[in-house]
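Subject: Predicted fold for Mannitol-1-phosphate 5-dehydrogenase, 495 residues

User T.R. writes:
Posting the sequence so we have a shared reference for the thread.
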Amino acid sequence: MNSNISTESVIKLNEASLARLGDRVQVFTYDRHQIVNGIVHIGVGGFHRAHQALYLDNYFQQTPDLQWGICGVGLLEFDRRMRDALHSQDCLYTLVERSEAGDRARVIGSITRYLFAPDNTQAVIDAMADPRCRIVTLTITEAGYYYIEGSGEFDANHPTIQHDLQHPNQPIGVYGFLTAALDKRREQGLAPFTVLSCDNLQGNGNIAAKMLTTFARLQNPDLGNWISDRVTFPNCMVDRITPATTPADIKMVAEQFGIDDAFPVVAEPFLQWVVEDRFCAGRPELEAVGVQMTDDVHPYEMMKIRLLNASHLLIGYLGTLAGYTYVHEVMADAAIRQAALRLMAEVTPTLQSVPGIDLDDYKQTLIERFANPKIQDRLPRLCLNSAAKIPKFILGSLRDALRQEGAIDYMSLAIAAWFRYLKGQDDLGNPIEVDDPMAEILTQRARSGGSDPRGLLGITEIFGNLPQSWRFVETVSDRLRSLDEFGAKGTLERQ
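User M.O. replies:
I've generated the structure tokens; pasting them so everyone works from the same file.
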């Protein structure tokens, strides 16, 4: 334990204790009790608390405009722990930025209310229907949009969607809640709110618009048309590496900063947010705190998703197969680090020019960010829900590279490494736990297919028509055979 902090002096985080935290941690000086919740955020996890909530905390600290506070919402049983932690701490939490230069902690106050939907469905609907709510933001993961990748259509047959269509007053999914709140506003003659997706989807606003309006029209065509005409769905690009909070993080916050926080969040120093300036009900002047407002987010989205997120997948699968646990350990392996750089080199010709960004500098910065040993980012986080990530992070680049007759070796290696990973055992014979909603069919096809990837490639909701490219199929097949025979490290030596 830090010699300055004894066990007895660790302070439970809440509003009453803020004045006792001392100078070890940065604490806001604005008056939280004057804040109006102009934003409802669905999906309060580590990323939201290290990113959007931080930007709003900075905004309140620097401007007198306090009408953009955040009411957090959890829809899933999984969110119960977040409810308990935030309710016990007056919705305060500690954010620690970690780097080799040192750890910096601050208390974030921009979330002033938290609602757990299973406790009170109507309270969530009412919060979004409140005329003071002008933006609803989302971090619901790639899988939360009920978007069928192969066709680009809405998954209307999903059990959650079917439930919400049949029980519009008792929703359990995001679209059910959004339509219930928007319908209430429409009936009361109120203007709608903006829906702002902050998830790693290319064209995230466009996807949210298509999925929500499709759902709404299935429920009530008039409401669907009203949403289509009146609601705006800005696209945005978000970036900050934010690993899942661990017991070690909770202990670190107590030992280094003297704070008893049930659910702190740790993140890297890097931070970026690029937002399409299209809000139907007003917005905070986020430019004041470093948010880049633009007419076209698309080049930034492509850059981030195709370089950072795709590299994360390659690192995650190869690193897991090679027996590593943490991202920084993988980046210390020269062969895997070189593979990540070569993947980025393959992707680069598929990108558009990005205003104000030097792509060579950006790629080098990514490697440095991945190598940050203080983040302790675990590989299972990168590999989570890969069936939803692979199409969004890699397959678009692959299609473009095939059209351009460009190189696809390392993108195909990422696909092959995923297929090898799905067999559930690393190169040392240790078990791999595949955490994916499609795990059953994925693992079954991976094991039955052996070194032949065609069974997995035939899952059209993931790969669409890509297997019609013999070059793609042959390249993936070659890499999968090599991974089976030589392992991840042996394959990289032969590349």
